[in-house]
Amino acid sequence: MDVAPKLLDMVWAILIFGAVIAVILGLAALYEKRGGRRAGWWFVGPSLVLLAIGLVYPALKTLWNSFRDAAGGSFVGIDNYTSIFTNSDELVVLRNTVLWTLVTPFVATAIGLLYAILVDRAKGEAVAKAVIFLPMAISLVGASIIWKFMYDFRDPAGGTTKHPIQQIGLINQVIVWLGGKPYNFLLNSPWNTFFLIVVMIWIQAGFAMTILSASIKAIPADIVEAARLDGVGGFQMFRFVTFPSIRPAVVVVLTTIAIACLKVFDIVRTMTGGNFDTNVIANEFYSQTFSAANQGLGAALAVVLFVLVIPIIVYNVRQLRASEGR
Amino acid sequence: MATVTYDHATRVYPGTERPAVDQLNLHIEDGEFLVLVGPSGCGKSTSLRMLAGLEDVNQGRIFIGDRDVTDVQPKDRDIAMVFQNYALYPHMTVADNMGFALKIAGTPKAEIRQRVEEAAKILDLTEYLDRKPKALSGGQRQRVAMGRAIVRQPQVFLMDEPLSNLDAKLRVQTRTQIASLQRRLGVTTVYVTHDQTEALTMGDRIAVLKDGLLQQVGTPREMYDTPQNVFVAGFIGSPAMNIGTFPVSGGNIEVGPARLALPRDVAGKLTSEDDNKVTLGFRPESLDVTSESNAAAFPVEVNIVEELGSDAFVYGTLRGSLAQKDDAVITSGAGDNQVIVRVDPRNVPMKGERVFVTIRPGEEHVFSAATGQRLS
């Protein structure tokens, strides 16, 4: 391996980056006193150009491509969209994406919230939180590989009495120990999608817990005390004081996870490759574009995904503003 | 309505040696307005929170009426509390805030509405009932917090520095409103403040605490006229009392050139630990400006004159053959070696001038130099 030139490249990159920052800061210092609208455009300009090249143009190009055929040659109208909403395979893709987006946010948030309340001001809170937060630090692909081992299935029929098949998947081995029959988790639709969703929940519950725990701690102590004096008991405290106080944070967590689920790709790609009816929009869009060489359909899927994400983002931003404006 | 009794109530915070509240004995009469006052960290808020049930009582007991509430849950003590930061529920309207305790208690909706409206009328909040707390001013929030307490119709009101977040003018205004409201409702009230003016103006009786220990309990007049020790003497009154330690010889207290007769019964209480000294306190308003020829007069050099219209205060330094060897021979609200004198606002001395003052007979406070306890 040629490590030296790569290192040299990295050093160059850092130097160039530093030079660009220095130029920007120098310009800023130069224009600081004069100010004005024209100076403003000089600063916004580069960002606008980069946004146009990196974001706006590809988006428009994708939209354009979604109305064209597999090779991107001739115009086909809304054929690509029609097939997304009529083709049985594509309908399964849509169904799975809906499942992901509905189930994951609520379950992950519920688990995170419950956990945050249980460990709040308990002994060893920091350790307990670190344990559930750790999966967040693992890449989605890494998490998928871990869970692939968890779910691993070896068909017992393949063994002999002398050399019986040993389960290497943790869950199946536990099932065998408990006297059950091993189960192929990733094979049977629609349950296999739920088993994939478990991986996302495992990751996102830590995220939900962290955000919600912080906002629970931000509730002023005297409000909790006032509630105690008003006669509020355990569950009532949650219903009338804790939950209304953290409601904006809950909404932000729900929508953030929902967006992550709409765009989920790595888990499905790594664990099933979209087989056995576990496909989702992002993975199907990838497969159509790069494997099946159907650019038009891929672009249409990307547009559908984009349109689905927009309302959630709008709602998310509004909630963020509302929670800051309090 | 009920009495409140602290019986040797003690609170020790975990991990600390010294009790935050040490053996507090206090009896509050039915319908009385009692003010707990003291410098920060004196245990006044802790005492109140012990009564509320928000702090554990490590030793001793607390009674509301005849009922021992030491181990009773806060909600079952039949009390209502007004917090310093009001502690209003931000997501509820004013009406919901005020009626929340009743709602939790399962009171019928019509009755809640009626009681909330009554309280809102008393507090002039009727037009704000449907607003959220964030849409109210500080004074209005404070009134909502009061309203929340009133609606519950409790046996005892607890108030923890409820005026400290208001501006100076509103504070003076609200202070009289709260006092008159309490007289009208006749509910036993325990009120915590660090402001001695608030204590004097509002309380039927005042309890002064310091370092977790009760210093003195009494009516505002008693606290002002006969403070039981040097701390209470210096704490109650504005501007603060002038307090200094002076030698005694031949039955007289020697304040510089002045000779003040020390009453025989007081002189008899001096012990060997006092080392022939007494701590003498005299209020700025107990001093008369006189001439040098007066045998009981001592000189004060004017540093500044503070004119308040109705009054004028001279901040000066004791002068003459006075024990200047000791720097901090005398202290007042203005600092060490400073004396505050109230003078006729129509006839104020000039800066740098030397005035001679006498203590009006009978208005001096004599304390033991060793223990700080009152002798006279």
From TrEMBL, chain A:
Keyword Transport: yes
UniProt topology in membrane: Multi-pass membrane protein
Annotated transmembrane regions: 12-31, 40-60, 98-118, 130-150, 191-212, 246-265, 297-317
Signal sequence interval, chain numbering: none
Pfam families referenced in this protein's UniProt entry, alphabetically: BPD_transp_1
Ranges where the ABC transmembrane type-1 domain occurs: 94-318
Subcellular locations according to the entry: Cell membrane
Origin superkingdom: Bacteria
Keyword tags: Cell membrane, Membrane, Transmembrane, Transmembrane helix, Transport
Main location: membrane
Family membership noted in the UniProt record: Belongs to the binding-protein-dependent transport system permease family.
Protein name as annotated: ABC transmembrane type-1 domain-containing protein
Organism from which the protein derives: Luteimicrobium album
Upper classification of the organism: Bacteria, Bacillati, Actinomycetota, Actinomycetes, Micrococcales
UniProtKB/TrEMBL annotation, chain B:
Keywords from the UniProt entry: ATP-binding, Nucleotide-binding, Transport
Record keyword Protease present: no
Pfam family, one: ABC_tran
TM region positions: none
Entry-linked SUPFAM superfamilies: MOP-like, P-loop containing nucleoside triphosphate hydrolases
Database matches in InterPro entries: AAA+_ATPase, ABC_transporter-like_ATP-bd, ABC_transporter-like_CS, ABC_transpr_MalK-like, ABC_transpr_MalK/UgpC-like, Mo/tungstate-bd_C_term_dom, NA-bd_OB-fold, OB_MalK-like
Top-level taxon of origin: Bacteria
Residue stretches making up the ABC transporter domain: 4-236
CDD domains cross-referenced by the UniProt entry: ABC_MalK_N
Annotated GO MF terms: ATP binding
Protein name: ABC transporter ATP-binding protein
